[in-house]
Amino acid sequence: MTSLLANPYRPYPARIDDIVIETEDGNLKTFRLVLEDEDTRARWSHIPGQFAMLSLAGVGEAPIGIASSPTEKGFLLFTVFRAGVVTTALHQMDVGDRIGVRGPLGNGFPVDGDLKGKNIVIIAGGFAFTTLRATLLYMLANRGDYGKITVIYGARTPGLLLYRDELKAWAERDDLDTYITIDREAPGWDGLVGFVPTVAGQVAPSPENAAALICGPPIMIKFTMPPLEKIGWTNDQVYLSLENRMKCGLGICGHCNVGPVYVCKDGPVFTRAQLQSLPTEF
Amino acid sequence: MKALRLDQADLERWFANWAKTREVYAPLEQSSTSQSISATRSYVDWAILRDGRFPVLDRGLPKSPIKKFFLPQPEVLFRSSTKKDDPDAFVLKEPEEQKDRRVLVGVRPCDARSVELNNLPFEKDPYFQSNRARTAIVGFTCRDRCQTCFCEAVGGSPVGTEGMDIAVTQLDDLYIAEVITDRGEELVQEGGGAPEASEEEISRLKESKEQVKSLFSSMSDLDHSLEAMKAKDLFALYNAPFWSQLADSCINCGTCTFLCPTCYCFDIQDEVVKGTIRRIRYYDSCMFPLFTLQASGNNPRGQKVQRVRNRFMHKFKYFPDRFGPFSCVGCGRCIRECPVNIDIREVLRDLLAVE
Amino acid sequence: MSTTNTVITEDIRAKAKELLSSGEVKAFLGFTDGTLPMTTRPFVARRPEDAERLVWNSFCVMNLANYLPELLKGVEPPRGPKDPPPEGPLPKVGVLATGCWSRNIVVQIQENQVQRDRLVILGIGSRGMVDRKKVMAQVGGKEILAVEEGEDSLVVEGRGFKKEIVRGDVLRDNCQVCVHPNPVIYDYQIGQPVPAREIEGRFRQVDEIEAMSSEERWSWFQNEISSCIRCYACRNACPLCYCPTCFVDDSRPQWVGKSVDPVDTSIFHILRAYHCAGRCTDCGSCESACPMGIHMRLFTKKLEKDVLELYGTEAGMDPDVPLPLTTYKSDDPQDFLVTEAGGQASEQGRK
């Protein structure tokens, strides 16, 4: 190749260092990966909200949001839902197995830009909490850069909540308001019960100097917007992360375009205002 | 610019000399008559020029564009092995760089320009750039206009030299070769040179080009106002009513995209055969429903009308928004080959009419 | 000049206009003129005035049955995936049908892809369609700028040439051996039925291939598909190919590689042909659609011959005769299924 060193298609070799089964149905696992090359490991940096291609030689690649914060050094976390060919194969792998990581890709949340100095409201549903975990940890590590931080996170059942130990720890912090909810009453659950949009409406975070980062199933996003809009939130305050099909991750191959933008390169994070200037092909 | 004068024998000498160190490709008759089946086919397409054959230049554009030399179908991105005893098992490695140099002879201005347009998205793609670095283009400017040509409407020219290393123009009794790049100069040397064209010949060259240009303009049924499209509102174009009529006829095959010089969308996939892994990229088409299907089952372009629209919107709105020019060279292959005669020129007229 | 085709065109327009005006059909599927000589475009007329754009000529090579399942869905009132179907009859669609297309409609009815009572079929006896690749070959591959169609001839013109071609010489291969030119089901007859034909050597191209040695046959097949670009125009032009996800596109599991490796391309063409066995009417759409000039209808023609010889049936001749390969009978022939151990078939089967 003319510039072999800069081959953006080449993944970094990595080893699986740890695997945590996150949910009771076993469909979500968090993989802790350690890049094999020390230099690469030292040079690695990413922005919360970015993703990487997890590359299984012989199987293929899948774009997965980076669940670890840039402030967590030496390893990368990916919480992976078993859905397609690659993620199914990944779920069958063991600690010590070799995989590839290609990235970081995409834009990420503007944690060092527009979000700085703002009150932050994180709203997540189901297994879409992954890059928001990265974002939250980053913000907690740089706590002085942000105002009030509110986390609203829900899952169908307690057993489907991600990062349960961390959720407990966050609930005990006094520089953070957490609202963890499940869809229906469940034995042993003494926390909130109700859908995320309902809880968001009850919490009613003030739009004053604030930004909301919302990740979840389309239906959750759809129903979360009206209660927020009712209390004055505008589309340019709301950040969403898209999940179009991606292959190259470089804005070339054409799979993820939404009008003139490529989700893999210009996204995956967009404000709702940006999305309204695009065809609804996401 | 340096201009040389050649006759056909000189050109043949160049081709033969180049063939000593390079692969020389040209448009050639691809006829196949099965031994006994009374079924034959015949068209002109890119093939290795050998045995003293001369490029076929009087049968319109070759069947396929030249993109396969830059975006091969498939391109091997990496190799690896699945063998347990291999310490580098599952570590993807680039294949050895292809060093064979190639010359494409008889490339028309539209096809030559396609390489420059594709270079915009592939600017940092090492595979594309490697192929580009080893592929020289000896273009032939146009004399006749194919009935499906609309190169000028999308920013090209029948006598354009964009993307060429050497541009050959045929006058009635001789050829003038304009040497455009250093690589072109190298080719001239390797070919064995040729005398410089006289002033009289150069003025004949200019005259001929002017003639061709005015001939093309007079025959063009698309005016030159296509640029106006770039300023049109995305949603006005996107929501235009004619897309659904177009989708009524379209069968959603990949003919237009695969034979288009500037359709470059691809997919990446791993293949494993007997312990050897190949990660390849190969042509994909936004016409295919699975192109946008997400693992969750959601499909942002699940409807045919959305896919049909995307191809044209990409070429004439999304790509220019990003890179400037249209992603189309006006070669007309999609018009010629579409099984249901979807004519991109009609789409352009419809788009231009959108307020 | 009035020809059979111009008369048919007038009749189609009149009938389509009537059907659209009266509201009997919501859409009418036919052809309109293409923008290049020797091309037509499948076209959906939705308003009475659209009917004026309908044409009938020797270049109507796409099988309209291919569009029917989607068009029928498209004219239904919009509803969500879980909503019940509306009460009362669903809107109808008008369509042109020659012999082979009508037989494909029959197959679609048998396979529950279309409903007979939602179709208004205008039957046309087909005089055979012209293969534009054959016409181009007649003028040495030169660009044809104009074609005028007479009753039995074509006058083609290009830069520096003008030539009269006998229509019968450039008919598509499938039309040359067509024995069922008249529609088997229709609501209105347009034009006159075409006289029944006696075709000598109806399977002559297949016979030629069968006469080859196994190696010759394989090399003929490989040569035929060597130019395939996997655009799937053949599949997408085919009224039999309506699977929501084709086996070549499926990724879970992935049955076949997606690039142009000869093995993958072979598998695609062989499986495509076998999926059409007992259902194909040799309409020739696949071959007409192919941009690379591959003669893929010979693959399905072989299966048409086999099904005729083994089961004595032809696809789509009668809605009440079940499709041979989706019906079990205790006396079904099976000699071709089992070969004695050590025989050639089982040898190959193990590979």
Mean pLDDT of chain A equals 94
Radius of gyration of chain C over alpha carbons?
A: 21 Å
Distance between the termini of chain A: 35 Å
Uncertain runs of chain C are 345-351
Helix content of chain C: 25-40%
Strand content of chain C: 5-15%
Averaged pLDDT of chain C, please?
Answer: 92
The overall strand count of chain A is: 15
Q: Which fold name is given in CATH as the topology of the largest domain in chain A? A: Rossmann fold
Largest sheet of chain C at a glance?
5 strands, mixed
Largest sheet of chain A: 7 strands, mixed
In short:
The complex is a heterotrimer of chains A (282), B (355) and C (351). Chain A is an alpha/beta fold.
Folded structure, characterized:
The complex is a heterotrimer of chains A (282), B (355) and C (351). Helix content of chain A is 21%, strand content 29%. With 282 residues, chain A is of the alpha/beta class. Chain A has two domains: 4-105, Translation factors (Elongation Factor Tu (Ef-tu), domain 3, Beta Barrel); 119-241, Nucleotide-binding domain of ferredoxin-NADP reductase (FNR) module (Rossmann fold, 3-Layer(aba) Sandwich). In chain A, the strands form three sheets. Chain A has a seven-stranded mixed sheet with strand order 10-9-8-7-11-12-15, sandwiched between helices. Chain A has a six-stranded antiparallel sheet with strand order 4-3-6-1-2-5. Chain B folds into two domains: 1-33 and 40-62 and 75-220, no CATH class; 222-355, no CATH class. Chain B contains eleven helices and ten strands. A seven-stranded mixed sheet of chain B has the order 1-8-7-6-5-2-3, with helices on both faces. A three-stranded antiparallel sheet of chain B has the order 4-10-9, with no helix packed on it. In chain B, helix 1 (8-18) crosses helix 4 (182-191) and helix 7 packs across helix 9 (304-323). The relative contact order of chain B is 0.15. Chain C contains twelve helices and eight strands. In chain C, helix 9 crosses helix 11. Chain C has a domain at 204-336. Chains in contact: A-B, B-C. The interface between A and B is large, with 48 and 53 residues.
